[in-house]
């Protein structure tokens, strides 16, 4: 017990508290807003063709709301989620060129709104405070040219709908003070199939075809439901007057491993040698893990670690019938942390001679 207390005090004195977050496990919602750029758009006109024609847009704005579901960790470094998204983008027309000739009296807006289904992979580089993610989506979008005109007269006021697609790259920073809340920053490439609009008041032209490709830069918040802060450490039990204090040994492990290191074998050998000297009648072998991964995975890993230590004790002459072998997963950390923290002091097996 004295060794455990000393290790805890030393670790908490040198390791800063970092915000951390497990990849989303369960329902979440999010809202983002930002800056939208529409690529210069090549246009085609019918029935009279006007080659080398394009529309340029000013920078505009975008807003995106979403609801999704996360599947937690699929691997120590990977999580996955799916989401349903509603989006809106608005940009003003800056310039129209027909047959390379810049038109006068230009105005109007392009507005795009749609519904997308996205699949996203969350990555964990082991930093403890920054989580990149990538993904993509497909859906349906409506593109409206509202009052798009040249030559001083309104020419296009129409809406078309089409298949939409997008690529997503972002960074998530959890807010440790509010479990489940994270700040997200994203880039999205969003596009639709070619749209076709009706044209009015233009002799020889009654239809215009236009691409719609967007570069969108966003920032916002995501909130995952059901995330609770880690429980406070249990108070230390009152010291017993008798019998004599138990002898405790700590055996540490590498990340996601149950293999014994050379140093671990030395500690186990010391425990085995001292068991007869303290007249131990029971030897408790208890495995623990850090908080990376699911509860079920860590429970199994902690038991594998305990069995590895028990096998080494048995090899050194301690009968297995004298041992109590258990796994505690990440429920009893030596160093209290948030979820998904690679804390070396918590990857351990405790040997207690009683």
Structure, explained:
The chain is mainly beta. The protein has 2 domains: 25-224, Beta Barrel (Porin); 243-353, OmpA-like domain (60s Ribosomal Protein L30, Chain: A, 2-Layer Sandwich). Helices cover 13% and strands 52% of the residues. It has 3 helices and 15 strands. It has helices spanning 2-14, 262-274, 295-315, and strands spanning 25-38, 41-47, 54-57, 60-75, 78-98, 101-102, 107-123, 131-150, 153-174, 181-198, 205-224, 247-252, 283-287, 323-327, 348-353. Strands 1, 2, 3, 4, 5, 6, 7, 8, 9, 10 and 11 form an 11-stranded antiparallel β-sheet that branches. The protein has a 4-stranded mixed β-sheet with strand order 12-15-13-14. Strand 7 (107-123) and strand 8 (131-150) form a beta hairpin. The longest helix is centred in the last third of the chain and has 21 residues, at 295-315. The chain is rod-shaped and about 105 Å long.
Please name the CATH architecture of the largest domain. Beta Barrel
Low-confidence stretches: 1-21
The CATH topology of the largest domain is what?
A: Porin
Strand content: over 45%
The SSE string, one letter per element, is: HEEEEEEEEEEEEHEHEE
Identify the overall geometry.
rod-shaped
Note the total helix count. Answer: 3
